[in-house]
């Protein structure tokens, strides 16, 4: 006998809101993942896209959290950096990453900011069996997502982090923040040689377009290394295909998206789930 089809949860006076703040909103995927999940488990909550231009963001954020039935906010581009200064409390990951993609109101009214891009990436690796504690890792790209991944890898207990970015100042600034908050991790910059690394991460846009150069020399990767990707335009980027052909295990870009949502749910205090369940109920079209 087949399982009953969940009935839509009505929007009523008890509905809780999660604001999804960014601009433009046409590429937002979160409502098509969260809302079917909430419906499937009978939680009376809804993620609402809210298009907000940068010049209006600060007053809009304050106004959103003046609403009593707002549980929290998902923050996306172009507000991930500016929201940091609007929070009253920040997690160490946010302080290292310099960006934030989730805000909630604490019991005393203060706003807490956290960042789950890196957490999603790390959870995906751990669920695939990669032992991060004591590992040596290379992260290519020290922008927002690269910084978040590096921070979460440090929090997971890696032994060493190599950082590379064409903008050397960005890589060195990230290295300094990591050394401040995670002094046990050996951090170096200036090289993208993947030799000796158990994990190699492409946190750059390379792979978005056909013909892009590879972020590292894949021939220098050990066959038992792990290759991680953040580009989501195609599941198997050239970097992942080359790494897989060498024998490496891989993590596709969309895994980070689906793996971070259970962490978001825990942050907001909702029942959590698995990435597989989220994929099964999502309505991405």
Q: How would you summarize this macromolecular structure in one to three sentences?
A:
With 285 residues, this protein is an alpha/beta fold. It is 33% helix and 19% strand.
Count all strands and give the number. Answer: 12
Radius of gyration: 19 Å
By CATH, the architecture of the largest domain is named 3-Layer(aba) Sandwich
Secondary-structure element series: EHEHEEHEEHEHEHEEEHEHH
Helical segment count: 9
CATH class of the largest domain: Alpha Beta
Unreliable segments of 5+ consecutive residues:
none
**Arrangement of strands in the largest sheet:** 2-1-3-5-6-4
Q: What shape does the CA trace take?
A: globular
**CATH evolutionary superfamily of the largest domain:** NAD(P)-binding Rossmann-like Domain
Mean pLDDT, to the nearest integer, reads 93
Summarize the biggest pleated sheet. 6 strands, mixed
Residues in helix, % = 25-40%
The structural domain count equals 2
Q: Termini, distance in Å?
A: 27 Å
Which percent range describes the beta-strand content?
15-25%
Q: Class by helix and strand content?
A: alpha/beta
The CATH topology of the largest domain, please? Answer: Rossmann fold
